[in-house]
Design brief:
By secondary structure, the chain is an alpha/beta fold. Helices cover 38% and strands 24% of the residues. The protein has one domain: Spore Coat Polysaccharide Biosynthesis Protein SpsA, Chain A, CATH 3.90.550. The strands form 3 sheets. Strands 5-4-1-6-11-8-12-10-9 form a 9-stranded mixed beta sheet. It has a two-stranded antiparallel sheet with strand order 2-3. Strand 2 (30-31) and strand 3 (34-35) form a beta hairpin.
């Protein structure tokens, strides 16, 4: 079955970016000239996704406004003959069909995904965490969809990490099937290097079968009262196979301030209008003393 729906959880407080996120959603922070969440939306659309369910919470209306039509702005741009900008604005509102689902309490990623059950129904679906920007020649979620189509099973994205990464991400125990495909046998959340099964970490892209909803319902909250998606996937492993895919491309964790800065710089350097001025700026700062 073709995967036509994606879920983007965007209900968190964004505390790691305070005070910038006090009055605006973290997902609306700019990376170059687009809000963070737009990168996930465009990745989904470029992968063939037609409908996107965004899990939101109080204070997230800017996300809905961003992907809605803006008659006043469009009229202003048309009057001023700013047709390039007008085209960009209209393209955003026509990217996909959007559904917004309110998560009233922050009860973990597993709970956020469960909120999308009525939107998804009995179909397989993808999940994209907007904190992560994947810069890939073939969109990351499209890479996972290809594996899902082959095995008709849940697929999670994997990346090799160092010992510090083993403290930050869920780590899988797996059997290698091919160069980039792994059959998942177990997983543990943020184990640290001494307890890690491997150096293969779970990142923010998933393709789930609808069975995941049943597993989330049977998942006990952790010590913080949150339902972790890794715990639900562990239950899913008892019912059906789960595969991991070592994606091809680059990934930036924009929930981390340093990675967020790196993403902004590296993605800007890929743009012709920014590459030369930025390169000259960096060279100047390396070669001369700043006396300002």
């Amino acid at each position: 079955m073709k995967v036509c729906k994606a879920v983007i959880p965007a209900a968190g407080f964004g505390t790691r970016f305070l005070p910038a996120t006090k009055a605006q959603p973290k997902e609306m922070l700019n990376v170059v000239d687009k809000p963070l969440i737009q990168y996930s939306v465009e990745e989904a659309v470029d992968s063939g996704i037609e409908s996107i369910g965004v899990i939101t919470s109080r204070g997230k209306s800017a996300i809905e406004d961003h992907f809605d039509i803006s008659p006043e702005l469009e009229h202003f741009l048309e009057e001023k003959k700013k047709l390039d900008l007008l085209e960009q604005i209209r393209r955003i509102s026509n990217l996909a069909e959007f559904c917004y689902i309110r998560q009233k309490q922050a009860l973990g990623l597993g709970h956020a995904i469960l909120m999308a059950e009525s939107f998804v129904g009995s179909e397989p679906f993808s999940v994209l965490l907007p904190d992560d920007i994947f810069d890939c020649e073939v969109p990351c979620i499209k890479q996972l969809l290809k594996i899902h189509q082959k095995y008709n099973a849940t697929v999670i994205v994997l990346m090799r990490v160092d010992e510090e990464g083993m403290k930050k991400y869920g780590i899988v125990k797996s059997k290698q099937i091919s160069e980039r495909v792994f059959k998942v046998e177990d997983m543990v959340e943020k184990p640290g290097p001494r307890k890690a099964f491997s150096n293969l970490a779970i990142l923010g892209r998933y393709v789930f079968t609808p069975k995941i909803f049943e597993m989330i319902k049977h998942t006990s909250p952790d010590h913080r009262g949150e339902i972790q998606i890794t715990d639900a996937i562990r239950l899913l492993l008892e019912e059906e196979p789960v595969y991991g895919y070592l994606f091809e491309g680059n990934r930036y964790d924009c929930g981390d301030k340093l990675d967020y800065i790196q993403a902004s710089l590296k993605l800007a350097l890929k743009r012709p209008e920014f590459k030369e001025p930025l390169s000259e700026l960096f060279i100047k700062n390396v070669d001369t003393n700043d006396n300002s």
